[in-house]
Write a structure and sequence with these properties.
Elements: E1 8-12, E2 19-20, E3 25-28, E4 31-34, E5 39-40, E6 45-49, E7 59-61, E8 72-78, E9 84-92, E10 98-104
């Protein structure tokens, strides 16, 4: 997940099968946004950007006006049946660090930072 000008959520397929994200959705602080058709192979990750851009193998762009709250929020991934696959709750601490609480039913994970 990244906050700021280029907001995105990263989805990682940790299963041993390919998943198609068609008819899946993200719920961001109560607002549902449909995902585009995109095959996610086992071990593959895709960044789902809320803003505008050109789709490629590693990035989807939703062209949405929805924004991530820069202080705290919740993002839920729903599958094509409407079931919650995973949720991520985040909160920026007074020192500028961000804490995360994740519930995963499938293959949604917070990527490790490089710093």
């Amino acid at each position: 997940m990244a906050l700021g000008d280029d907001e995105f959520v990263e989805i990682v397929n940790g299963l041993n099968e390919t998943k198609n994200l068609r008819n899946w959705g993200l719920v961001i602080d109560g607002t549902q946004i449909a995902l585009q058709e995109h095959s996610l192979e086992s071990g593959q990750r895709v960044r789902v950007h809320l803003g505008k851009g050109e789709k490629n193998e590693t990035d989807l762009f939703l062209n949405s006006a929805v924004e991530l709250n820069d202080i705290a929020g919740n993002v839920t991934l729903k599958d094509d049946t409407g079931e919650n696959v995973a949720s991520l709750e985040y909160k920026v601490q007074p020192d500028g660090s961000t804490t995360y609480t994740m519930t995963a039913e499938g293959f949604f994970e917070y990527p490790k930072s490089n710093g």
